[in-house]
Design brief:
Number of helices: 13
Shape: globular
Strand order of the largest sheet: 3-2-1-4-5-6-7-8
Number of strands: 8
Largest sheet: 8 strands, mixed
Length: about 300
């Protein structure tokens, strides 16, 4: 199919490449001309602006936004909407708040424009492994973009989870669970690192991934991180959050659902910004491994 891609950062550029390798025509634009040139070099059609991108797509258009949540998403929609036609499909593949997605879907529907909120997980590994995509939107809009979803995702790795807003809601909870998993791994490896046995953490991570009940892709990433830096001495134990954990906790409060593990894992991230710990280093390393998120380098030891 033919699809536009707005935003060529860590994920947008890789998604563009995966779509091109799947035989799709992809029209791309980004605020950084060098990013556009890089995608054009592997077969994408470059566009100089959002309006140029719309002009280079044939109705019924499908345009995928991979831009930061909040103001950048809203600004992109405000610029695109007047140029789109009835029946065009606009997709938000970032981590927007689901309340915003519901509102945007309602507003665009008044113009006859379909909106799909596509929660996307896979990070920097998505190019090779595929992306898990949780899509919210109308049946017709989902069906229109399904050929692209089928290319982007691994087998059985995408689903139509509900109406507009459902995709980002499911992705929000997914990320809340991720917070809890990372915190548990971090605490466990801190116990191992502090023991008197001088344990090989890389070897243990690999061992646990062979048949144990705590095996996971995240544990594979921990093994990679420990292989490069056995005691994570180059990483400062500062763990950032990008919003979804906070929103998950707020949703738990709104629904009167007890979610102590996710809530405490968010609080631990806040604590990591004040006092470094090995647990926080593990979580920072895992975020870098699966999503390419920047880590803060450890400074010289204090006397």
């Amino acid at each position: 199919m033919e699809i536009g891609m707005v935003g060529l950062g860590r994920m947008g550029a890789n998604m563009t490449q995966r779509l091109l390798e799947g035989g799709h025509r992809v029209v791309v634009t980004d605020l950084n001309p060098a990013a556009v040139d890089a995608s054009a070099a592997i077969g994408a059609t470059p566009a100089a602006s959002l309006q140029d991108l719309v002009a280079k797509l044939s109705p019924r258009r499908a345009i995928w936004m991979m831009v930061p949540a909040g103001g950048p998403v809203q600004s992109t929609i405000d610029q695109l909407a007047p140029a789109l036609s009835k029946g065009d499909v606009l997709i938000d593949g970032g981590n927007s708040n689901y309340h915003d997605s519901v509102r945007r879907g309602e507003e665009l529907a008044l113009r006859g424009i379909e909106y799909v909120d596509a929660g996307t997980s896979g990070g920097i590994w998505g190019l090779k492994e595929g992306y898990c995509i949780m899509a919210g939107g109308a049946d017709g809009a989902f069906a229109h973009i399904e050929p692209a979803l089928r290319t982007l995702a691994p087998p059985d790795g995408y689903a139509h989870v509900g109406p507009v807003g459902a995709g980002h809601f499911v992705k929000m909870v997914h990320n809340g669970i991720e917070y809890g998993m990372m915190a548990a791994y971090g605490e466990g490896f801190e116990l191992l690192a502090g023991s008197k046995f001088n344990l090989d953490l890389r070897r243990i991570a690999g061992l646990w991934n062979r048949g144990s009940v705590v095996r996971s892709w995240m544990l594979e990433l921990a093994e990679r991180a420990f292989e490069r830096d056995p005691r994570l001495e180059s990483i400062r134990g500062y763990v950032e959050d990008s919003g979804e954990g906070r929103w998950t906790v707020q949703e738990a409060l709104d629904q009167d659902v007890p979610a102590p593990i996710i809530t405490l894992s968010l609080m631990r991230r806040f604590a990591s910004r004040q006092d470094s710990s090995f647990s926080a280093k593990v979580q920072a390393a895992l975020r870098n491994e699966f999503g390419g998120h920047a880590v803060k380098q450890a400074g010289p030891a204090k006397a």
